[in-house]
Amino acid sequence: MKYAFGLVVLASCAIEVLAFPSAMFDLSMNPEEKRNIANLAAQIEEDAKVRRAGTPLAPGFSASQQYVSNQGAHVFVAPGPNDLRGPCPGLNAMANHNYIPHNGVATITQFIQGTYDVFGMGTDLGTFLTVYGAVLDGDLTSWSIGGPSTGSLLSSIGLLGTPQGISGSHNKYESDVSPTRPDLYQYGNDYKLIMSQWEEMYAQPLGPYGYDLTTLTSFRAKRFQESIDNNPYFFNGPFSGVVVQPAAYTFIYRFMANKSAEYPEGYLNADVLKSFFSITGTPGNFQWTEGYEKIPDNWYKRAIGDEYTIPFFALDLNAAALEYPQFLSVGGNTGKVDTFTGVDLTNVTGGVYNLQTLAQGNNAACFAFQFAQQAAPDILKGLFSGITKPLAQLNDAMGKVFSEISCPQLQAIDTSQFKNYPGSKGSY
Q1: Where do runs of H (alpha helix) occur along 324-360?
Q2: What is the pLDDT of residue 355?
Q3: Is 108 within 8 Å of 141 (Cβ atoms)?
Q4: H-assigned helices in 165-295
Q5: Interior CA angle at 190 toward 293 and 230, to 5°?
Q6: Dihedral angle sign, alpha carbons of residues 60, 306, 243, 83
Q7: CA separation, residue 272 to residues 18, 289, 293 (Å)
Q8: I want to staple 372 with a disulfide (CB 3.0 to 4.6 A). Which of 239, 280, 282, 418 is the partner?
Q9: Percent of the chain topping pLDDT 90
Q10: CA 352 from centroid of its chain's CA atoms
Q11: Kind of pairing, strands 279-280 and 287-288?
């Protein structure tokens, strides 16, 4: 099993990625917000160190430390008419259980704390994802897990329009080939569950850990081909396809699997999967209730010291690409189904990467993050009247990513290579 090697590597490098250095939060925002994030990082780091003391290295299992409450202050409360919910089941569940604000609009610090408390997401990964969402889909300090806020997300920072949230972030925070959500240009939305896709995922042969990465990666390959076959505007972008798309699959097992002494890395069974995806019923009679995602009873998150960090995610990304090289084929359909054509990455990157070198080491993750950074100025010009502050904030978050994975230097990109792909509109 190709993931076995990756898990060995994860264990061997665990000591290097346990700590969460506070310096990573040197974001270009107002001093008070910077202090809040730095204090949060220090608090999480110190708390993790105390709880790790005297316990085995990752993954291990401690029921008292890993239990995630769905009672009391975190009892499920259904979303109301003005509460926002979107395409991410995990974020929806967090809002429904008040780990982030119930209205579905949260600040950077609230997202970092919530994803750590509920899922054991590493603060490096949580910070990057949160800052990226705040810059591209929010108002630099907060963003919506669904569509545009009915309240005021706007501030005096030169926004050119209403932030659209992640439901309006196609090719940025959301991509084609979702496990259960539709391709935007095929269905007209990117956030409503497609029952046929859910049924197909549910019916996949289980791996040794239930709906684990062996199951979900092969399902991703099926969905990849389905998008080629059915979506004339399918686009596998440098960032949205290479990084966002695999996260939609790896996050299911890495974050939703229930941890235990028997399965310290987690076992994801059908009942837990259904709870997180707001599904009731049985095969042939499934029902989806939009926005009602729940944290299951008796559910335990990742072990303290086994947080899912950027290096861990890069290993999962690489393992999937070694098994299915098409995942790294940047390109798309050209206006008709079954017309998938890959770009020449040598031309896109000025010779820094090609399809062969992309599969080596951390190059796939490096290329995706570097491309997002290089493309950001043009994207931000459509969102802000002045891009200096949002660009600096995004660059600071990117800096932490590059400090954790060694990357070749990408000096420039040529986005004109994507002109023949109608599905590449908006971002990459």
Answers
A1: 345-348, 355-358
A2: 87
A3: yes
A4: 184-187, 195-202, 213-230, 245-256, 270-276
A5: 125
A6: positive
A7: 27, 16, 11
A8: 239
A9: 62
A10: 26
A11: antiparallel
Amino acid occupying residue 188: G
Q: What pLDDT score does 279 carry?
A: 98
Query: What Cα–Cα distance (Å) separates residue 187 from each residue in 181, 201, 202, 227, 337?
Result: 10, 19, 21, 11, 14
- Give dist(CA 86, CA 146) in Å, integer: 4
H/E element holding 330? none
Q: How far is CA 80 from CA 84, 197, 279, 386, in A?
A: 8, 27, 19, 36
Low-confidence stretches of the chain (pLDDT < 50) are 1-27, 52-56, 153-154, 156, 158, 160
Helices H, strands E: what count in the chain? 17, 7
To the question of pTM greater than 0.70 for the whole model, the response is yes
Residue 331 CB: number of other CB atoms within 10 A?
23
Q: Which residues contact 261 (CB under 8 A, 6 or more apart)?
A: 61
Q: Encoding tokens for residue 316?
A: 């999962």
Q: 388-404 and 310-323 helices cross at what angle (nearest 10)?
A: 70
Q: Which of 343, 331, 325 is nearest to 423 (CA)?
A: 331
Q: Look at residue 161 in the predicted model and tell me its pLDDT.
A: 64
What is the per-residue pLDDT for 9?
A: 30
CA angle 294, 296, 297 (to 5 degrees): 135
Nearest to 140 by CA among 152, 153, 126, 123: 153
Report the pLDDT value the prediction gives residue 4, as an integer from 0 to 100: 35
Amino acid 27: pLDDT = 42
The first and second tokens of residue 140, run together, are 């630099």
Amino acid identity, residue 255? Answer: F
Give one DSSP letter per residue of 258-291, joined into a string: BP-SS-TT-BB-HHHHHHHTTEES-TTS-EE-TT
What is the model's pLDDT at position 388? 72
Cα 257 to Cα 42, 45, 150: the distances in Å are 27, 23, 34
Q: Is-contact 106 131, C-beta < 8 A?
A: no
pLDDT for position 140: 83
